[in-house]
């Protein structure tokens, strides 16, 4: 009889991969090939969970907050295993190295902004949203984008990521940042650049 | 002038949408049934064709490859059949293709799980994954057997791939896909972990095999840091556990 590892659905409806039921998944492996495989599984898990729950920020402390928003993946109570902060620190820096996250704010190594969509992808999503909701050529505040009255693909996006997406769009003439007293705003244009 | 207001109109609308949806499911069911009949007919026609042209198919490579291509184009898998070798082999006496194809799939599974299990996979787990890949039941009629896997691996031998069937004792087998001899110590570790727990510790090795603690430690060090067949787990109070992913069944 071999031991079997099952997928599991969490309270928030996320499907945990079967490796999440493997106890050594929660101990950083030292053999390089094993470690590479383990790290790839962890980063994929973190990004897909973040996308599932629309989480943008991951802090080193999140490994130690019981009942926190990351608890479902950093803690497996069925096998009594928990991701250690040192292990999470390793994962954070690996993700930053691989472009899956950035230190935000910069010049520290405890908090990252997760790129479950790359800024380039966010730029497209943002422009698509502005177009489909008929908001081209009008001035929008950042607040109107991050907290729209009707939930959108952009709801809750951190301002720093929003700014990066806009600056990508402005390179192709599809958006323009308008600096103002109250946090600033943006105007979107149709792709051809016509007003 | 048509007036479409009022309760009666609302009721009428509800009724008509209900009958539309009923109609649509009837049509879908009829279509499905007719597709199934067509498929069965087609299948028997194909078998008939294969039987009548058996000689040509067997002797003419160009014709054979065209026939195979036709099967592939219309989505009929000549390898998937109710019996060993499929109806294709049954009607034509080809065994080779089925076994070769199985070999390719074995390689596929071994390579894709190698980082996790260090290149050693439990026979039942391999068969389970193979069955999943081919969409056949894991055991029972039409299923893949241990003998099939062993035969396919024999065929891979001339390629120098180093695939080998390991005997772990007590009728348990595993497939090794890395070019390295599995020594008795590693086999002992895999054997003990495969008894159902999925892991070993220094102590369980010492008591199971009457090894010295130093030997157990050295073996575990090799299995973990040289071969990658063990994953360490330091979150248990009774000491470090060495898990052997190769002995576990993975729900994909």
TrEMBL record, chain A:
Protein's name according to its UniProt entry: ESCRT-II complex vps25 subunit
Entry similarity comment: Belongs to the VPS25 family.
InterPro entries attached to this UniProt entry: ESCRT-II_cplx_Vps25-sub, ESCRT-II_cplx_Vps25-sub_N, WH-like_DNA-bd_sf, WH_DNA-bd_sf
GO molecular function: protein homodimerization activity; structural molecule activity
UniProt keyword terms in alphabetical order: Protein transport, Transport
Cellular component terms (Gene Ontology): ESCRT II complex
Pfam families given in the database record: ESCRT-II (PF05871)
Listed GO biological process terms: protein transport to vacuole involved in ubiquitin-dependent protein catabolic process via the multivesicular body sorting pathway
Origin species: Sistotremastrum niveocremeum HHB9708
Automatic annotation (TrEMBL), chain B:
PANTHER family linked: EAP30 SUBUNIT OF ELL COMPLEX, VACUOLAR-SORTING PROTEIN SNF8
SUPFAM superfamilies per UniProt: Winged helix' DNA-binding domain
GO molecular function terms listed in the Swiss-Prot or TrEMBL record: DNA binding
Family note: Belongs to the SNF8 family.
Protein name in the entry: Winged helix DNA-binding domain-containing protein
InterPro entries xref list: ESCRT-2_cplx_Snf8, Snf8/Vps36, WH-like_DNA-bd_sf, WH_DNA-bd_sf
GO biological process: protein transport to vacuole involved in ubiquitin-dependent protein catabolic process via the multivesicular body sorting pathway
Keywords in alphabetical order: DNA-binding
Record-linked Pfam families: EAP30
């Amino acid at each position: 009889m071999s031991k079997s590892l099952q997928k599991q659905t969490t309270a928030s409806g996320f499907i945990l991969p079967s490796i999440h039921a493997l106890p050594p998944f929660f101990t950083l492996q030292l053999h390089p090939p094993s470690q590479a495989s383990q790290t790839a599984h962890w980063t994929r898990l973190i990004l897909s969970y973040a996308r599932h729950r629309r989480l943008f920020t991951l802090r080193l402390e999140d490994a130690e907050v019981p009942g926190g928003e990351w608890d479902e993946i950093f803690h497996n109570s069925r096998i009594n295993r928990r991701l250690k902060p040192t292990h999470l620190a390793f994962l954070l820096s690996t993700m930053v190295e691989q472009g899956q996250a950035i230190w935000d704010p910069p010049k520290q190594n405890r908090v990252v902004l997760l790129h479950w969509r790359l800024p380039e992808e966010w730029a497209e999503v943002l422009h698509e949203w502005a177009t489909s909701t008929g908001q081209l050529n009008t001035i929008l505040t950042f607040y109107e984008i991050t907290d729209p009255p009707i939930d959108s693909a952009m709801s809750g996006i951190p301002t720093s990521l929003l700014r990066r997406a806009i600056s990508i769009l402005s390179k192709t003439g599809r958006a323009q940042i308008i600096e103002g007293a109250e946090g600033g705003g943006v105007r979107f244009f149709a792709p051809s650049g016509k007003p | 002038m048509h007036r479409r207001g009022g309760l009666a109109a609302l009721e009428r609308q509800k009724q008509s949408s209900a009958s539309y949806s009923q109609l649509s499911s009837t049509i879908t069911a009829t279509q499905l049934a007719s597709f199934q009949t067509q498929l069965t007919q087609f299948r028997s026609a194909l078998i008939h064709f294969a039987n009548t042209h058996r000689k040509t198919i067997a002797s003419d490579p160009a014709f054979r490859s065209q026939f195979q291509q036709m099967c592939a184009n219309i989505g009929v898998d000549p390898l998937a059949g109710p019996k060993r070798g499929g109806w294709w082999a049954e009607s034509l006496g080809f065994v080779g293709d089925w076994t070769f194809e199985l070999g390719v799939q074995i390689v596929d599974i071994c390579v894709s799980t190698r980082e996790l299990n260090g290149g050693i996979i439990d026979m039942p787990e391999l068969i389970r994954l193979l069955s999943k890949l081919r969409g056949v039941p894991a055991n029972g009629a039409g299923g893949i057997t241990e003998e099939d896997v062993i035969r396919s691996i024999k065929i891979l031998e001339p390629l120098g791939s180093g695939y080998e069937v390991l005997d772990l004792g007590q009728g348990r087998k595993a497939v090794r896909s890395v070019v390295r001899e599995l020594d008795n110590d590693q086999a002992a570790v895999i054997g003990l972990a495969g008894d159902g727990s999925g892991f070993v510790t220094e102590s369980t090795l010492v008591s199971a095999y009457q090894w010295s603690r130093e030997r157990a430690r050295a073996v575990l060090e090799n299995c973990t840091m040289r071969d990658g067949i063990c994953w360490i787990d330091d979150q248990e109070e009774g000491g470090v556990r060495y898990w052997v992913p190769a002995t576990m069944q993975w729900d994909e």
